[in-house]
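FAQ: What does a multi-protein file look like?

Like this. Sequence, then tokens, then the next protein.
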Amino acid sequence: MILRGLFKDKYLYVKLWRNEAQVTDVVNGVSLREKSNIEFSNDRLLIANFYEAITFLKNLIHKIKKDYRVKRYNSILVHPMEFIEGGISEVELRIFLEVFESVGGRVVKVWDGEELDRGQVIEKLKNKSL
């Protein structure tokens, strides 16, 4: 239990657009939005090039958390902002989960509703179901 206090929960809220992402550290409010130099989206999928997306997102997340001793986030809430007409397919959901587990998320959830504030993000990530 003593160690639990040393490693506070870290939460990321990641909004995705075509070849672009905004990463917000929900606890401290630091946010960064960038466009990728290399395309990882196509006309049908936000993440069409799996490895290019991982590289871009790892670099973007690293810029947010560069001063942390532990380089892993407990929870990441992914929010696709485009290509969600008709809902997120099972295949797209799997892509989001795989990519964000690869960039360091222990718990990864996907949200396709309205934009959330910091408190709502934490609530969604702590909730067992989404």
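And here is the next protein:
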Amino acid sequence: MTRTTRHLRWFRHFGPLSGSEAKLADPLERYLLVAFAYGCNLGAAQAARHLGGRISAHELSYTVRKHVTLASLNKAIADVVNAYLRLDLPKVWGEGNAVAADGTGAHPEAWTPAVMRRAAL
């Protein structure tokens, strides 16, 4: 993740919702930790526990609430996906006009209303 952060600069899409300069001590580190915590589906509390006091759950959740929007997240994801598609590996698998999935969430009849609410987040 650190290399993609340095090379692609996907974090440039994040920042205070007011548009002002980030007042975080190290915005790059904070955005990287947020991407790790939420990208791995750990969430703020569990990630903070696993990071051994490097950052608190409050700091992680605050950063998400105040510095990341759905639009900025989608732009960051697009940066990473577009960079990946420029590599040779995706071309080995074909022309990119089909997808595959591992079956996670493939049984909607088993989804309870609570699971549906969580999936909508």
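Q: Is there any per-entry metadata?
A: Some entries carry free-text notes. For the entry above: The first helix runs from residue 2 to 8.
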